[in-house]
Amino acid sequence: MESCSVVVTIYVNPCAGAACMNGGTCTDLGNGNFTCNCISVYEGVTCETYNPCLLEPCVNGECYILMYVATCNCTGTGYDGTACEQDIEDPELICPGPYSYNTPLGKANITLEDFAVNVTVSDNSGETLSTTSDFPANGVFVIGETKITYEAQDSTGNMESCCVVVTIYVNPCSGAACMNGGTCTDLGNGNFTCNCISVYEGATCETYNPCLLEPCVNGECYILMYVATCNCTGTGYDGTACEQDVEDPELICPGPYSYNTPLGEANITLEDFAVNVTVSDNSGETLSTTSDFPANGVFVIGETKITYEAQDSTGNMESCCVVVTIYVNPCAGAACMNGGTCTDLGNGNFTCNCISVYEGVTCETYNPCLLEPCVNGECYILMYVATCNCTGTGYDGTACEQDVEDPELICPGPYSYNTPLGEANITLEDFAVNVTVSDNSGETLSTTSDFPANGVFVIGETKITYEAQDSTGNMESCCVVVTIYVNPCAGAACMNGGTCTDLGNGNFTCNCISVYEGATCETCVF
After folding, report:
1. The dihedral formed by the CA atoms of 347, 348, 353 and 359, expressed in degrees to the nearest 10
2. Whose CA is closest to 430, among 404, 451, 405, 407?
3. What is the pTM of this model?
4. Cα(first)–Cα(last) distance of the chain, in Å?
5. Domain that holds residue 71
6. Residue finishing a domain among 343, 366, 389
7. Last residue within a domain, chosen from 366, 388, 421
8. What is residue 157's DSSP assignment?
């Protein structure tokens, strides 16, 4: 058998009571919900709020409530009146320009029949307004400045105007604006440009300049007595137009180079030896070189100079030398002594790799200390034997291998304390002594001591001995001195009612009452 439950919920009708206030009409939405349809000047879930602005009393502007009355704020609207219904703002006109023109050649004025001015008009009322103007009759403008006034008026009589300025210039090309046969071009606004003939330049072609014909093949042109003249200085050229090449090519030879002969050979063959000679010429030509490079690339011992030459198309010639030096191989003979191995470094140079007890450029020096026989100390040679100097090391023996130096201990202190009031001793359980320990062996050593049992110190001086021993049995010690004083305030240290303060180390101070003074308040001041 199977069963299920059905849940039925009964709500009180929300419209049964006065759910909606101020004359609002209630509508039951079911499930205990409702909505209110409020009359004109009320709003809210239950029509509880009075708002006369709901009647939209303002034609323009913003409505707000003042003393329960709907009031209109006209600020920034261009309107006035109780409901912001009166238009008090002029239209807005925006005139373009200014404009400028040149008169036609030979004319004293200009006709601009198709001249159109796009004046922008707007009004806060949203009306579409037209403009009127005093545009010149037939579009004829005389030389000088003309101001055209445009006006617009809205339906309530508000009016505004703006001006378009048109300036007419005399055509600059009407006269002889360009000199020496130059051609004038009218650019408008009273401006012009001149296209000059070949040997003239300037704004009005007023300057004679024969260098404009570019008579110089090379060099720099200048005017001498109204004649174009060529300055060839620094160009490598000569002649009236700097047309004659008089400069040799430029060659840059690399080097010098040097090589060693192979072992047992009297010369060396450098078949693949390549020399990159740099060649340039003021003419811009690509030039090749010739040389007296040795036949088959065989170079003998000593210095050889190879001459490279280059010649341009006008016969100018230059040369340079590459120097190649051949050295006898230094490892060909017994360069390295005492069994050392020779390495050829080139250029007649070499290096020797010496066996264990020899050193020097050619392994000529016997030095048994190179075997590093001393464990500690410094090695020196005595009668051709490596000997160890152990002085100042803390070691002894043939190789300074025996540690003979005690550790080093540094004890702090001394320390001093007062006993507590009424006590004959003091317990210093947390008293810690930082003893510094070091050893020539580099070992990390610990210390032992005869620190008093339970940290109890009696009155008087106690010496605590600290000891350390290294792995070879060398030992050292030091003492920490702790002195305990009887508390001076334990007795009647301060007289005549003075208060005693313990300063430590057996010292004290007295705080005297008003009529006494002195170290123990022993003196009456009255």
Report:
1. -120
2. 451
3. 0.39
4. 117
5. 55-87
6. 366
7. 366
8. S
What is the DSSP secondary-structure string of 282-328? Answer: TT------EE-PPGGGEEESEEEEEEEEEE-TTS-EEEEEEEEEEEP
How buried is residue 469: exposed, middle or buried, by Cβ count under 10 Å (0-12/13-18/19+)?
middle
Cis, peptide link before residue 254, omega less than 30° from 0: no
Strand 99-102 versus strand 159-169 pairing type: parallel
For 326, phi and psi rounded to 5 degrees? Answer: -110, 125
Which of these, 282, 324, 286, lies nearest to 302 by C-alpha position?
Answer: 324
The single-letter code of the amino acid at 115 is F
Burial 306-315 (b: 16+ CB within 10 A, else e): bebbbbbeee
Neighbours of 412 (CB within 10 A): 12
The tens-digit pLDDT sequence of the chain (526 residues) is 787 777 666 777 888 877 889 988 899 888 888 899 998 889 988 899 889 998 899 989 899 999 988 899 999 888 889 989 898 889 999 999 898 888 877 777 888 877 778 899 998 888 899 988 888 888 888 888 889 899 999 899 899 999 999 888 888 887 778 999 999 988 877 788 999 999 999 999 999 999 999 999 999 999 999 999 999 999 999 999 999 999 999 999 998 988 888 777 778 888 777 788 999 999 889 999 998 988 888 888 889 999 999 999 999 999 999 999 888 888 877 789 999 999 888 777 889 999 999 999 999 999 999 999 999 999 999 999 999 999 999 999 999 999 998 999 999 989 888 887 777 788 887 777 889 999 988 899 999 888 888 888 888 888 989 999 999 999 999 999 998 888 888 777 888 888 988 887 778 899 998 888 998 898 888 7
d(CA 26, CA 16): 9
164 DSSP assignment: E
Fill in the DSSP letter of residue 369. Answer: G
Distance CA 111, CA 370 (A): 113
Instruction: Find where tokens 């079911």 sit.
Output: 30
Residue 230 CA neighbour count, 13 Å, CB half: 18
Whether 301 is in a domain gets the answer: yes
Does a structural domain hold residue 5?
no
Query: Does 441 share its domain with 480?
Result: yes
CA dihedral 364, 369, 370, 373 (to 10 degrees): 150
Number of domains observed in the structure of the chain: 10
The CATH number for 312's domain is: 2.60.40
| Same-domain pairing of 437 and 375 | no
Residue carrying the six token digits 């702790």: 482
Residue 499 lies in a domain: yes
What secondary structure letter does DSSP report for 23? Answer: T
State which amino acid sits at residue 426: I
